[in-house]
Write a structure and sequence with these properties.
Number of helices of chain B: 17
Number of domains of chain A: 2
CATH topology of chain B: MetI-like fold
CATH superfamily of chain B: MetI-like
CATH architecture of chain B: Orthogonal Bundle
CATH class of the largest domain in chain A: Alpha Beta
Distance between the termini of chain A: 86 Å
Number of strands of chain A: 13
Strand order of the largest sheet of chain A: 3-10-4-13
Number of helices of chain A: 22
Mean pLDDT of chain B: 89
CATH class of chain B: Mainly Alpha
Number of strands of chain B: 2
Structural class of chain B: mainly alpha
Helix content of chain A: 40-55%
Oligomer: heterodimer
Radius of gyration of chain A: 27 Å
Radius of gyration of chain B: 24 Å
CATH superfamily of the largest domain in chain A: Periplasmic binding protein-like II
Order of helices and strands of chain B: HHEHEHHHHHHHHHHHHHH
Distance between the termini of chain B: 26 Å
Helix content of chain B: over 70%
Number of domains of chain B: 1
Strand content of chain B: under 5%
Strand order of the largest sheet of chain B: 1-2
Low-confidence stretches of chain A: 15-40
Mean pLDDT of chain A: 88
Shape of chain A: globular
Low-confidence stretches of chain B: none
Chain lengths: 528, 299
């Protein structure tokens, strides 16, 4: 009897525990809502802000969400960072949002994802917030109207914070100057010349591959294969350019001028390996200046005679274009509609947007990391700088970051007395002058495509991949899959998948916005 | 009932069982409630209950989608081939391992065939692609040496299918054999001795004793795997697919990932998942009722 009573009470106790756990689960974070009302005497909870985790914070300095910089920022605005893995950020944000734990300020580069959040009614309009509580960001908004234009969503309200970056090259076309010389060739000016040059280099057995297909594909840029183009003053879906680009690639494939395994090289890693081992003659590359330096260094150590030149993209029948450069103005931040203390979020944005903060996050603190010598910042201890300051890129996602252009700063930091550094300096400087030039514009109508409404977005995500697969098959399909036949198939697939709806959307959007939107030509007159 | 002696006697057992019930309620049954989002226009802000009802709209979107037929066909074909071709391998493997008499050799073989199961598909996929790639793959290197020409194994639908099925078998056959090995270990040894005395060869013993003894297990596994015929494991197909074979390699799970999850259309993804589960349930019930005719039903 006694043991029985004991076990009954034990069962009751465990039930109680269970119920409590369940209640705690469903209760969520209700307790926060009442405390959020602005009573100055009550100490506010710190705001939460997302922070990319790239695994690059040195352990001695701390962790992504707790290090000397987060502590330092906390002295001004109490903030709690929510680490988000850089390459799985969207999945992570989705999980956090679904659980109701998403940060108050979401910092994410992916335009499509931020627009998706807007469509899901997840965002808070920020116009009034800026009007009432901002100083720094408000000033930037007035100085660079583009910030407002780009941050405004389809309902006409301002939702996004952004940053100013200045001009920073992002894509490059490199050519092996040593091979060019060995084959007795000039720098190819047109796509046909490029094809002939690749053929010659391959025939002379100077390189295994003429160029790369995986990784950054410069051929799509050269042929302006950007899906949407302007024709007779309207924005229409392109068929001509994609066919021409595919024909060109198919020719390269059939003649063995490109790596035939390109389709299984999903992230371009193999193409890069081939390039740094000296197997590739012309190489399209996307990455920052540091990566250019490192890869060139690896190439040199594998093939000491290798000499790279950066060249303008060859001209095609559609014109001459340039590889992409980073958006000089880029939208990055949105405020969670559930943020309890938007005022503090604004204070945080202002803090991070200020010139002095931008300066500190690039050079470090005066007296600790650098000192002024003749008006120029001089790093005191390079090791300390690398460890404590060099990885702060993701703190520079808001406001006036253009005051220190990353690219030009990188060039300045190169050691001109070192022959290799000097070579890279020339290379990067040439790229800057060649690619950021309205004579050879970016191929796209605009870098800032409008966010799509839900139903159109569905059509696009449903049809995009099958379409690009179709074109890929034409490249590897040999004589069975001609480009003409594929074009027919692609058109059928497009109309069967309601592609006309997308065409209609862009057509109307362009007609309505062509006088007010930011187009490619507008990017070349920024006064940074 | 609660006063009956039998209940009171078993109270300690019920208590021990309580966490399991709780586990199933919390982690298996409660999440099923989330299926309602298949009939709603789910968004994060309004949450599961607050989002607006849309009835069967998502199912309508799915089944009027011109690519859906192709995706369903791919799913069924891949998974049917996986089942038909892959099913006998663990059984054969178990029978063979069972025949090994030297225990050190048996253990070594067992460990060797289990091992691939513990490798992630990301690794196995990388290995498979490297082996069969056209420029540097070992298979094509040998072929070039023999015939002077290479072959695009990964771009050709037929050879891709063979590689897909084969790599699946390689990875999972050893692990699948465990359950058959356990069943074989339970077979009464005197049966083998008696058969041996009667002059039955090893093959005969295998055919007349080993196989019939594990028949119930084979049926159970068959019924369970028929239930998952609408699922092609995401990792494997996602790692191995490429644009050239997408017309046979784009399956429900990859489509759902691309359009549903990364496209933020969770309701649509839920609707497709729901459909997939219902077909799976129907298939399991059918398979079981057929098996019952042979007195080998699961329940």
């Amino acid at each position: 009897m006694k043991t029985m009573r004991k076990s009954v009470s034990f069962m009751l106790a465990s039930l109680v525990v269970l119920v409590t756990i369940l209640a705690a689960c469903s209760g969520g974070n209700n307790e926060g809502t009442t405390g959020g009302e602005s009573d100055p005497n009550v100490k506010k909870d710190p705001i939460t802000v997302s922070m990319y985790d790239r695994g690059n914070v040195p352990p001695e300095v701390g962790t992504v969400d707790n290090n000397l910089w987060t502590q330092w920022i906390n002295e001004t605005v109490p903030v709690e960072y929510v680490p988000v893995p850089r390459w799985e950020s969207v999945q992570r944000f989705n999980t956090l949002l679904a659980a109701g734990d998403a940060p108050d300020l979401i910092l994410e580069y992916d335009n499509a994802y931020r627009n998706q959040l807007y469509l899901q009614k997840q965002l808070m309009p920020i116009e009034e917030l800026i009007e009432q509580h901002s100083v720094e960001y408000k000033a930037l908004l007035e100085e660079f109207p583009l910030l407002r234009q780009l941050g405004t969503k389809s309902d006409g309200q301002l939702y996004e914070f952004g940053r100013l970056l200045g001009y920073i090259p992002g894509g490059y076309l490199f050519i092996r100057e040593d091979l060019l010389e060995a084959a007795g060739l000039e720098v190819p000016q047109t796509v046909e010349e490029a094809y002939e040059a690749m053929k010659k280099v391959k025939a002379d057995q100077l390189a295994t591959f003429g160029t790369n297909m995986s990784g950054y594909n410069w051929m799509d840029v050269a042929f302006q294969n950007t899906t949407w183009v302007l024709e007779d003053g309207d924005m229409v879906k392109d068929w001509e350019r994609v066919a021409a680009a595919t024909q060109y690639k198919k020719q390269l494939f059939d003649e063995g001028l490109i790596d035939r395994d390109f389709m299984t090289d999903k992230n371009g890693e193999k193409a890069l390996q081939d390039f740094v081992q000296g197997n590739t003659f012309m190489f399209g590359f996307a990455g920052n200046a540091l990566l250019v330096y490192n890869n060139y260094e690896t190439l040199k150590s594998n093939v000491p005679d290798a000499k790279l030149a950066v060249i303008p993209l060859p001209r095609s029948e559609f014109g001459q274009f340039s590889p992409y450069f980073n958006d000089p103005v880029q939208m990055t931040g949105v405020v969670n509609i559930k943020a309890e203390d938007p005022e503090s979020v604004m204070r945080y944005v202002d803090l991070m947007s200020s010139d002095s903060m931008a300066h500190t996050l690039k050079y470090g603190q005066e007296g600790v990391h650098y000192e002024m010598v003749d008006g120029v910042e001089q790093t005191l201890d390079q090791d300390k700088y690398e460890k404590e300051v060099s990885w702060l890129g993701d703190y520079r996602m808001l406001g006036g970051q253009h005051i220190i252009n990353e690219f030009t700063k990188y060039l300045e930091d190169l050691d001109q007395s070192d022959p290799f550094d000097k070579e890279v300096h020339t290379l990067l400087e040439t790229a800057f002058n060649l690619y950021i030039d309205r004579e050879r514009p970016l191929p796209e109508v605009t870098k800032y495509m409008p966010g799509l409404p839900d139903d159109i977005q569905f059509v696009v995500s449903n049809v995009n991949e099958p379409m690009s697969d179709l074109w890929s098959r034409a490249i590897v399909g040999g004589s069975n899959a001609t480009v003409d036949k594929t074009l027919e198939e692609a058109k059928t697939l497009w109309s069967r998948s309601d592609g006309e709806q997308v065409e209609q959307f862009y057509l109307e959007w362009y007609r309505e916005n062509k006088d007010t939107w930011v187009f490619t030509e507008d990017l070349y007159d920024m006064n940074f | 009932m609660f006063k009956s002696r039998r209940f009171q006697y078993n109270i300690p057992l019920f208590i021990m069982f309580a966490p399991i019930i709780a586990y199933f309620l919390i982690f298996k049954f409660a999440p099923m409630g989330g299926l309602v989002i298949a009939f709603k226009n789910y968004n994060f802000t309004d949450g599961i209950w607050g989002s607006a009802w849309v009835g069967l709209d998502h199912f309508h979107t799915l089944f009027t989608n011109p690519n859906m037929l192709n995706i369903l066909r791919n799913t069924l074909v891949l998974s049917f081939l996986q089942l038909v071709l892959g099913f006998p391998f663990p059984i054969l493997l178990a029978l063979m391992i069972n025949e090994i008499r030297r225990s050190w050799f048996k253990k070594t073989v067992q460990t060797a065939v289990f091992f691939p199961h513990f490798l992630n598909w990301v690794i196995v996929g990388g290995i498979v692609i490297t082996i069969f790639s056209q420029e540097t793959g070992i298979v094509n290197n040998i072929m070039r040496w023999l015939t002077g020409d290479s072959y695009p194994y990964l771009y050709n639908t037929g050879s891709w299918l063979a590689i897909f099925i084969g790599s699946g078998i390689w990875k999972s056959a050893g692990w699948g054999a465990i359950i058959y090995l356990a069943a074989l270990a339970g077979v009464d040894q005197s049966l083998y001795e008696a058969a041996g005395l009667d002059g039955a060869s090893r093959l005969r013993q295998m055919w007349h004793i080993s196989l019939p003894s594990i028949r119930p297990v084979i049926f159970i596994i068959l019924i369970l795997s028929i239930g998952s015929i609408m699922e092609v494991g995401f990792d494997q197909v996602y790692m191995l697919q490429n644009s050239a074979v997408s017309q046979i390699a784009d399956v429900i799970s990859t489509w759902n990932y691309r359009v549903g999850i990364t496209g933020g259309r969770f309701s649509l993804a839920a609707a497709l998942g729901f459909f997939e589960s219902i077909i799976g349930l129907i298939l399991v019930l059918t398979a079981n009722s057929i098996a019952r005719r042979f007195n080998n039903g699961l329940w």
